[in-house]
Amino acid sequence: MHGFLGYVRRNNSLVLGSALLLFLALFVIIGHFVVDVEDARALSVRPLQPPSWKYPFGTDRQGRDLLAVMVAGTPLTLRIGFIAGFLGVGIGTVLAFVAAYYRGWADTIIRGIADIGLTVPGLLILIIIAVSIRGGLSVNQMAIVVASLAWLNPTRTIRAQVLSLRERGYVEIARMSGMSGPAIILFELMPNLLPYLAATLVNAVSSAILASIGLEVLGLGPIDAPTLGMTLYWVNFNAAMINGWWWWWTAPTIIIVIVFLGLFFVTVGLDEIANPRLRRSA
Amino acid sequence: MHLIDIVKRCGVFVVIVWLAASLNFFLPKLSGQDPVRTKLLQQAQLGGYVQQGIDEMVKVYEARFGLDRPMWQQYLSYLGDVARLDFNYSIASYPRTVSSMIAEAVPWTVGLLGMTTILSFVIGTILGALLAWPRAPRWMAWLMPPLWALHAIPFFLLGLILMYVFAFQLPLLPIFGGYSAGARPELSIGFILDVARHAVLPALSIILVATGGWALGMRGMMVTTMGEDYVTFAEGKGLSNLTIFMRYCLRNAILPQVTALALALGQILSGAVLVEVIFGYPGIGALLFQAIRENDHFLIQGIVFTVIVALGLTTLILDLFYPLLDPRISYRRT
Q: Looking at the complex, does the CB of residue B27 fall below 8 Å from at least one CB of chain A?
């Protein structure tokens, strides 16, 4: 354990990424005590105030306090990402193990679907799904929509990992000693894949957030929820850039950048744990 | 590559096209949406007149759009239409056809996307190779942190920042559109310069982000390649640095990059759609945004289908040319 902590301290990317995400968490938690989250609704405060002591992030044209919007919206955006990411990696892991461990026709079909699905621009498929759903989406529905494609990449990458793992000696020995397929997957393969799965998960969360923000900027998100992407939709809708309301888009932009940088550096750090060969070159 | 592989690969492309068409057809049906009625009700509300007789109007329009026939007939005729690239009329901009609207937008997107993808791929790959090369200039190491940071940001967010700095604060470049309002699209030097000036910021927001990704991938591959025995052997033979760099390392490390390019096209396009929306660039992305705002289902479907087919075709071409780059492929039977 001590050695592990010592290693983590040398893993700069992991530390930096975690620090960024921790900073966001603190911002949201402290924010909930400091500001009234109800002010994230339209018509709560005086519209279009630049940042001041009263409204540190300013207010938007529909009368939302942008600090309250950020405090309420950041967890919503992260929630979409995490639900979709977990679903994606969960489904992806099961499919990958079925495909790579049992091979045969199941592998052909799963690999075929994943390969075809990945070459298709995901955002466009999500758009078709989102416009086909009657009425507006809720935050959770949004997560499910995004998850509908979030399993493709994990399936592909985890499958490749399992394929290389299953040829190792200790798996061979487990198989010869009469261990059942599911048991080998659970007790032999899984533990060795955990760091890799973690990196895949963070990656999937990041892609899911990117996809959800994309849908939201196009106006297909939950219209009444103050997510980061919806804030940017209103920025675009009201032409805040040309009108010089710089504070309106600055706050969501900075937070989104922190989210993506944080997740990115955590992935790099986890990759380094999963793949020790990277340690030399980093 | 054997003939069977080529046929197989083309088969995958046909499957992609068929899946895209079917998805387009069935998803909206599943939701039970009625674009014609929605549109007519909208019009009625806008005009403020009584909604009397709207049922008859719906019937007439449904007959005109062929929506009153059984499902399988609609599906077959839809596939037939799609095969001829006929996506019906735009509901919001009737009587314009969807294909004519798409045809107008395609050159903008192809220009922007083609230019930025090629530039970022070439610059990123060379940069990544140099970053891993121990004998590269020292100052290059300083490029790594900004490349990493930029790489993690969505295209359109960087676009917002660039737009604020270079179009709003320092009005060096136009803030909006594909050409100046009032300029007439024609083949003159003035118009081409105008278009180029408008393309700089959207292009930069894609290139700056994408280059980092290619550089990171290439750097990783170069590090692995430089550890290979044949590189050590080449050094031992006393080959020049340039030869080792170009013909031994770069030549081998570039293969996974090209594979990654084929896989990344879809993502790049998804990102570029949002860049076009933010900059009001008159390409496919902005057209799609307009279609979503106007609830123009035929237009949305037409765009999604066209883009999927175009990307599928690009990937197919990349795949078919890949054996030229990697001669080992032609010997291996899969």
A: yes
Classified by CATH at the fold level, domain B98-293 comes out as MetI-like fold (1.10.3720)
Phi, psi dihedrals of residue A65, rounded to the nearest 5°: -80, 115
- State the residue for tokens 């990349």: B318
- What count of other Cβ atoms lies within 10 Å of the Cβ of residue A194? 11
- In one-letter notation, the amino acid at residue A43 is L
Interface contact A236-B27, CB threshold 8 A: no
Handedness of CA A172, A173, A177, A179 (dihedral sign): negative
Q: Count other C-beta atoms under 10 Å from residue A80's C-beta.
A: 33
Of B154, B292, B307, the CB nearest to A131: B292
Structure tokens at A50: 């630049």
Q: How far is A262 from chain B (nearest CA, A)?
A: 9
Closest residue in B to A263 (Cα) is: B152
SS3 B58: helix
Q: Is the four-CA dihedral B146, B149, B154, B159 of positive or negative sign?
A: negative
A127 CB neighbours in chain B (<8 A) are 288, 292, 300, 304
Round to the nearest angstrom and report the end-to-end CA distance of chain B: 10
Q: Which of A124, A213, A219 sits opposite B154 (nearest CB)?
A: A213
Residue B124, helix vs strand vs coil: helix
> Which positions 41-60 of A are in contact with B (Cβ < 8 Å)?
none
Contact A242 B168 (CB under 8 A): yes
B295-328 pLDDT, tens digit per residue, is 888 899 899 999 999 999 998 998 888 888 887 7
How far apart (Å, rounded) are the C-alpha atoms in residues B294 and B163?
A: 26
> Is residue A94 within a helix (H) or strand (E), and if so which, with residue range?
helix A66-102
Whether A188 and A179 have beta carbons less than 8 Å apart is answered as: yes
Q: Which pLDDT tens digit goes with each residue over A135-186?
A: 678 899 999 999 999 999 999 999 988 888 888 888 889 888 988 888 888 8
CA–CA min distance B290, chain A (Å): 9
Report the SS3 class of residue A148.
helix
The sign of the CA dihedral A84, A86, A89, A90 is: negative
CA-to-CA distance for A58 and A166, rounded, in angstroms?
56
Express each pLDDT in A56-65 by its tens digit. 999 999 899 9
In terms of Cβ atoms closer than 10 Å to its own Cβ (0-12, 13-18, 19+), residue A48 is: middle
Q: Which residues of B touch A119 (CB under 8 A)?
A: 16, 262-263, 265-266, 311-312, 315
Q: Contact A167/A247 with Cβ under 8 angstroms?
A: no
From the list A116, A219, A232, the residue facing B292 with the nearest CB is: A219
Q: Any idea where the domains of chain B sit in the sequence?
A: 3-83, 98-293
Q: Is B97 helix (H, G, I), strand (E, B) or coil?
A: strand
Of A121, A236, A263, the CB nearest to B269: A121
Mean per-residue pLDDT over chain B, rounded? 85
**Inter-chain contacts counted by CB atoms under 8 A, chains A and B:** 134
Could you give phi then psi for residue B90, rounded to 5 degrees?
-70, 135
